[in-house]
Amino acid sequence: MKVKRFFAPTMGEALKTVRSEMGPDAVILSNRRVEGGVEIVTAQNYDENVARQRLGDAAVEATNAARLAELQADQHCRLEDELGRSRDRIRQIREQRAAEGEVVWQTREPELKAVVANDSLTQAALEEMRAEINSLRDLVSTREQAVAAEPVVAKPATGAVQQRLAERLESYGVSGSLAVALASNHQHGRLEEGWKQSLKALAAGLRTRADEWMDVGGIYALAGPTGAGKTTTIGKLAARYVLRHGADSLALVTTDRFRVAAHEQLFVFGRILNVPVRVVDESHSLDSILDELSDKRLVLIDTAGLTPADKGCQQQLEELANSYHDIKPYLVVAATSQPRIMKSTWHCYKMAGLAGCILTKLDEAMTLGEVIGFAVETGLPVAYYTDGQKIPQDLHPAKAAQLVKLGIERMKQWQDAPVSATGT
Ligand SMILES: Nc1nc2c(ncn2[C@@H]2O[C@H](COP(=O)(O)OP(=O)(O)OP(=O)(O)O)[C@@H](O)[C@H]2O)c(=O)[nH]1
Ligand SMILES: [Mg+2]
Prior knowledge:
CATH architecture of the largest domain: 3-Layer(aba) Sandwich
Helix content: 40-55%
Bound molecules: guanosine-5'-triphosphate, magnesium ion
Shape: flat
Distance between the termini: 41 Å
CATH superfamily of the largest domain: P-loop containing nucleotide triphosphate hydrolases
Order of helices and strands: EHEEHHHHHHHEHEHEHEHEHEHEEH
Number of domains: 3
Number of strands: 11
Radius of gyration: 27 Å
C-alpha cells in the first residue's frame, strides 16, 4: 500500500495529477482546502487491514472506514512533515558548516581551535539529525514489515456469546470488522440481549436526513457505478416532487454525453412529467446550464455510470467538484453490489465532496447488512432508499430504525426459506 500527498491550485488539477501518477484505482483518503489550493492524500492498493495495522494503537479511534482513511492520511502527513523538518535542519547545518569552513581557512591557530570545537558540535548535531531520520524510516519500515508478516485479520479474543453474536451479525450482512466491533460492546448478558443492543447501536450509527429534498429544494447530483439505479431514482424523485409541488419549479440535467442514446430515459421522464431536461456537452457547461435554471426550486442532475478508470468519470467528478453552484452530490449504491465494490466506489467518488448516499435495489438483496454497514462505516447520511422499479412508489425517505428492521425481516426470510434441491 503506497500513500502519497498531492497539492494543486484546483481540485481538477489535483485529480489529474493523482490519476496520472497513481493510476485509475487510487483511492482518496482525504481532501481539504489549504492556502493556495487543495491537498489530497491518496493510496494505491488501499487495504483497510493494512491501514489499521500501520496506525497501531491510534487505530482504536478508527471506528469506521471514513475515520480510518482520515487517520491514515493524517499519519502520512505527520511523518512526511517530520521528515521534511529534519531534512531542513540538516541542510541548515550543512550550510553553516560550509560557511564556517571559509572562516577557518582565514583564521590563525586559536581561532582554528575554536572552529574545530564548533565543528565537532555541528557534527554531533548532524549525527543526531541522521539518527532522527533513520528512526523515522525504521518506524515506517518496521510497521510495513510487521504488516507483511502478520495475518491480516486480527479478531480480538471474544467470549462464546460475543463470538456467536458476531457470527449472527455477519449473517445479517455487516462486515466482519463491524460485527466484531458491535459484539465486543456486549460485555454481559445473553445472546438475545446482545443482539438487540447491537441492532440499536447499528441504527444509532446510521445517519439519515431529517429533511426531504422535495421540501428544502436545492441542486442534487446522483453519481455512482453503472446500473446502480441513478436515472430510475431521478425519475422517482421527479415524479414524487411533481405530485407534491407541480412541474414548474423542477428541472432535470444530465452530464452523460459519453454514451450513445444516453439521455433517452431521462427525456422520457421529462416528457411524461412535463419537466425540462438539459444536457451538459461541449457547448453547454454544467455551470452555464445551472445559471439558466436558477429560478428552479429543485434541480436533479443525472450522471453517467462509468468505471473509475474511465476518463469521462473523472471529467464528471471534476465538473461537480469545481462548480460554483451549491451542488450536493449523492452516491447511489445498490444493495446487491459487493461490499468491496461499494467501498472502492466510495473512495473514488468522495473527491466530489459527497453529501450523502441513496441506497437502491433493496428488494433484490438477500441481506441488507452490507449496505447498512457501508453507510455506517463511511458515515454518509442516507437520504432515500428504493426497493423496486415502480415510479414513484418504490422510493422512500430513509429512517435508520426502519432500515435496520427491514434488514432483520430480510434475514429471517432467508433463514426460514425452505432449502432448495440444488441448495442442499
Ligand atoms: N429491482 C429494482 N430494480 C431497480 C431499482 N432501481 C433501479 N432498478 C433497475 O436497475 C436497472 C438500472 O437502472 P438505471 O436507473 O438505468 O441505472 P443507472 O445507474 O442510471 O445506470 P447507468 O446510467 O448505466 O449508469 C434498471 O433496469 C432499473 O429499472 C430498485 O430499487 N429495484
Ligand atoms: Mg442512467
